[in-house]
Amino acid sequence: MKPVSISENSLPAQIWNSAPQLDNIPVINTETLVPAGARAVVIAPHPGDEVVTCGGLLQLLCSLGHPLQLISITDGSASHPGSRQWSEKRLSVFRPQESVEALRRLGLPMHSLKWIRGGFTDNGLTERESELTQFILRYLRPGDVVFTTWREDGNVDHDAVGRASARAVALVGATLNEIPVWAWHWPTRDRGLIPWHRARKVRLDTWTVARKSHATYAYASQLDGEPAIGIAPLLPPVILERMRLPYEIVFV
Q: Which GO terms describe its molecular function (predicted)?
């Protein structure tokens, strides 16, 4: 996960809580999004992106008995450059542990969850897109329903993973769904850049939202920044607030 690039002071003007188009997004049920018997594959650029993008949907799919595969592209160890508290060496151990705890809080079956860790380096995915496509392709099969970050999310790693996933999905004959993360925090004036015609809303009940929010707090390394060296929290309050919405939105 990467820091929000806009000021907390502009919160009222963000797309996620102000765009009028949000009220008109069609609702899609889980069974339509992922047909019976299909495998769901979640491709997360950084640790925590799987919860922020679709932590609610993961719970719904698990309850329906869908086979799940999670692909973590990076280990997130470069999230705090220059930090002594969160050195790259410490994060390389700590962040995978955070992810395990987060998935446990979601209630996912850790004993049967297929979890692939790519080991790619943060912030360097654009230069390795061809390799990334081949890596993702190795773990996909026809009929899979894939969820990953939107190609135009505005974060270099999110965009690169979105593009590589799209190419791999097309090559193997799977279905692609993209999920915006940082785009929701663009100013409302940029709402025209969102492909609203592709947007579908997955409704979440109170308990599903609560578990998702609880899982987000497992990422302790991302909740506090280091102002002394210019590092903002990678999970600032505005993101945590958005995590409590009673729905998730995917681009189909």
A: hydrolase activity, acting on carbon-nitrogen (but not peptide) bonds, in linear amides
Token look-up 């949907």 returns: 57
The pLDDT confidence band at residue 84, using thresholds 50, 70 and 90, is confident
CA neighbours within 13 Å on the CB side: how many for 15?
Answer: 21
Closest CA to 28 of 168, 179, 169, 166: 179
Beta bridge partners of 68: 40
Burial environment of residue 190 by CB neighbours within 10 A (0 to 12, 13 to 18, 19 or more): middle
pLDDT tens digit sequence for 40-52:
999 999 989 999 9
**Please, which pLDDT band fits residue 123 given cuts at 50, 70 and 90?**
confident
Asked if 37 and 212 count as a contact pair (C-beta separation under 8 A), the reply is no
Q: What is the DSSP letter of 90?
A: H
Instruction: Tell me the CA distances in angstroms from 97 to 6, 88, 148, one per residue in order.
Output: 29, 14, 21
In the chain, where the domains are located: 8-251
**CB–CB of 85/120 below 8 Å?**
no
